[in-house]
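User: Predict the complex.
Assistant: Input components as received:
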Amino acid sequence: MKMLMQKISVLLAVTALWTGAAVAEDKPIVLGFPLGLSGANSITAPAVIQATELAVSEINGAGGVLGRKLVIELADSASSAAGAQKAYDSLVYQKKVDVIISSEPSAARNAGLPIITRGKIPYIYTSFYEGGSCNKYQHINGWVPQQVVSLMVDYFMKDQSAKTFFLVGNDYAFGRGMLGYTNKYITEKGGKVLGEEYNPIDANDWTAIISKIRDANPDVIITSTAAGAPNVTFTKQFRAAGLTAKYGSYALDEGTAKTLGPDAEGIYLGGSYYTSIKSEKNAQFIKALNDKFGAEAKTPNELSVPQYDAIYSYALAVKKAGTTDTDAVVKALSEVTFDGPRGAVQMSKQRHAPLTMYLAQVNAQGDTTIIKSHPNVDPGEQCPNL
Amino acid sequence: MVPVLLDIITTAAILYIVSSGLLLVFGVMKLINFAHGGLLTIGGYAAVIATALGLNPWIGIPLAAVFGGIVGFGMERVVVRSLYNRPLDAILATWGLSIIIGQAITLVFDRGVHFAEPPIRGVISILGEPYSTYRLVLTALALLLGLGLTAALRGTSLGLSTRAVIMNEDLARGLGINSGLVRSITFTLGSGLAAVAGALITPLSSVDPNMGVAWLISAFMLVLVSGSSLYSLAFASVVLGGAQVIVSNYFGSVLGGMTIAALAAVILRIRPQGFSYE
Amino acid sequence: MSDANVKELGSSSIQRLQVRPLTKVVFAASIVLIGVGAAPFFMDAYSVNVLVRSMIYAAMALSVDILWGYLGVLTFGQSAFFAAGAYATALVFTYGGFSPEYAFAAVLIGMAVAVALAGLVAFLAFWHGASALYASVITLVLPIVVTQLLFSGGTYTGSSSGLTGFDTIPLSTEAWFWAVGVWLVVLTTGAWMYTRSDAGRLLIAIRENEQRCKYLGLNTSKIKALVFLICAAIGAIAGWIYANYTMVVAPEIAGFTFGTELLIWVALGGRGTLFGPVIGTIIIDYASAHLQGDFPFVWKLVIGIVFVSVIVALPRGILPLVSNAANWLRGRTRKAQPEQYSQLQLCKAPRIERNIVVAGPALVVSGVEKRFGSLEVLSGIDFEATYGEIVSLVGPNGAGKTTLMTCIADGSKRSGGTISIGGQDIAHRPPEECVRLGVGRKFQMANVFDTLTVGECLQIARARLDPLSKWKKSGVCQLPPSALHVVRATGLHSDLDVPAQLLSHGKKQALELAMVLALEPKVILLDEPTAGLTKTERTLIGTILTELATTEQLCILLVEHDLDFVRDISSRVIVLHQGRIVLNGSVDEVVNSELVKTVYAGSGH
């Protein structure tokens, strides 16, 4: 039934195009969101959906873009490459979306990009990732290693006088990318990496790796474990082992930290968004979220806020370009700036965004306390050819 | 050396706890319950509910037993009962039940990770090495569980009936033992044990709708090499769990992840009855 | 088992019978192919896209159905072979770049790896005496090990992220649709012809009763391994297509969950029906692509519930239900027609030069012992039997008669002593090789293939000597005169199209006897051939046995409780008591022996 309605509406839209441009103006702009409703990213997905709905309803409430309303199309990518293909296929070819905005794992993004290229539509990637993903239709507003690693490592080495590090991650693109870069950076700065260990994403037993950490006895461990279960199992088992090393994580989100209870206390986090950011925009954002969803409101996180930013960036780009035409929008996306909960974000540096980066620590209440912030941190040379 | 030894012992204990419910069902019914993973998950969520209600974390364990028992009883009644003569189909049907449990949990809670308060935190010093208190408590619980089950099988009339069914079901039925009832009780008990194990591992594991699946294959393999004996299960847990810890330590955790499955397959090829001495 | 020595059977009437089903198959396949050709013009790009993947999965389900539905091997590991093909492709293209030669090399490498893995699994899983459960366990371990191996490849195999971004065969979605569609139709047609052929019936025979197959001289382990390897190769090709089409490989395609999902599709479609799994997979995967986005959890929940219900209530799946309903409707409108080409011609097999050494004993048993732990079931069994002799083994229950039979028919069973057949030591040969030496065994409970027809049972019994056609029903079964005689004398020749399970008890016994005789044995072992038969049937069997002994010079060893029957037909009687021979003499000697009376009286008979 729904399919039928869609077909009819597409048919009507096509007829509308023929009968007159004035009617075509009212055709909604369809935003496609492949999202890990199941699998690893399903942990953060509810917050991402809320941020998406909030942004779209705010924009529509203000009259839409070019007089057209925005419409949300969600598709489950199952947080995997195979699932992402289904989701991107469905959005590009079945739902005929005007843009795809997604915050998926790297494997899912890599699986989706060929479909974006074939479908020729603008694409905004909103997750922090290991860097170096380049495609002429793609913009990225999440952070890359160059923006977060120095912040965290410098803090440990200078402020905490740490000398020895142990790196633990899940064996996937983000895990290896982050820790590889971290290892290099620590060594450059004169620190010592005692070990770099990876566990497969579906593994639930960290006994052996924790045993190695215990033997190495580092000052600091830095983790790049996957969202959801791996973050939780590692932290629980690490805490249960009673090790006293300082613990920094690139991948733990505030919502998950809350479900860890006291085990999360004291973990250092690096990223571009925390609820405790003191800014007017962030306060507005959190208030709007709570007003809209009330008790159901999820803790916003490092994936949901960039998603919110990206929707606004897209709306600004369409307004600037005056059309949803792909080439014009892609060009405009590098030029527009959106001032949101994370501060001003412009994807101007080789399709990546210079960001204000924060170092935070989980406190006894399960919330975050911001320790340091660096404005306008450069993402480095990610796509020199774009 | 001491920590590795402790890792081996505690890993074996965890495996024993996780597998004993499956072993009970396999021993009595000669049936492999692939819903075991789903039942573990139910136990994990029982601990979550206990935490949410603000109860003492230890209450989560009997709560898990009740939830697991009820679900197990229902599964035996509705599905498993008609599959006693089709063991391979029973594997598939119980796997289907596991999918149903996982999806039902997802619908009730969400797919996210949930928080369960651990009963005990902290470390104690063993020969000068700090070691997780909870893992040591689990070892003690595993011993208690083994002794308790053995005593129940030996000391109670239900245990006697159960052992009779394990040895020779036709004969037992001929002697007037209601083997249907024994099976129903065993399946309920096995499911309850699985859920208790699920609650017990929450301090070490993430509580999400798939938490049990990761344990299923290890438990399954351990049970196959153990036959129907609680003693051989203890032995198998130590040997295979120990092998897993050692391989993970010296050859990487990836190889460690397949140690139990691969080793069990080889053991069964050489000795089809595995570690049981029948 | 090679095709080279399939006998040409060329009577014109048989030829005419064969043409029609073959034409039908080609006709049906052509219609489906036309459908495949036309489909992309009537569907939106998304559906075409999804269906390509569904059809690849359908090919996987087909291979699982052959293994599980026909051969009875419940496999969780077909995904590992799929991954072998897919990863071979991804690795070759990632590190070598795309070229047609590399694409060809990739499919060969993928198949080679899959076949090697399958060989290892077969070696572990299908050895003599391995249980069905153990075989399934091994297929369960396989995807776990393969997944971990992919993880351990680290950045080389992309570990948990898999590999993406490699160039592959540049075809449009429609071209892929046609290519995969044609491949699937050809594969399904091939599989359909194979499973409906005489050799295909053998798969069912193995599923139904592997033991009987072994005692018919068929190396079932080898057959299972062979089919398993072929299905592994099909899986690897499917994986190759998948990687080429989707340009993505990830470790989950190797996993146990995907392996189990294949089983779910096959079970829902209807195991052992070929079309069911193929159509079922396409429908479920296509539907889930459309519905999963809208109701991700409810959809999986529904699949789970339907799956459990099907396993419990409809073990044969949903397709048979649909086709039964269709047949029922058709039956109401028009009278059901009998099957067109089920007529089977029985004919006399050309006499094989068997180098029968009629001189010397047919069977020599010396010093045979059998112990179960400390329990001694047989000890110091010594006797001989010659061609043309009917020797009866008598003794009370538990005397060890059936155990002795087993020791003669299966070289691996006895604990000590030697046995030779026609002068050849059976050593530790498994039953299928003992058959080769000339032993034929009939079991106490009629042991036939219940769902196969009488004709098919006989054909399978002949499979060792007359290789079965792999692509059609030959419509012919050659039997030696002795077997033919039994079939005619007991009236089985008019029941050739009747499933064996519908036969009367007496006819089942006769069928099994005919099957054993079809092996052209030198020594036949009959365990209570007259148990449960009517007086007339008993007399008939007695006459047949005596005739066989004299005309065919068979050595017949008989376990029997009916002493009258024994007296009527035996040339000699051996009395067993508590695992020892207490008497070995003529019928009169035994019948009049006080010892025998005491033995029987003592055992409470």
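The longest strand of chain C covers residues 375-385.
Let me know if you want any component modeled separately.
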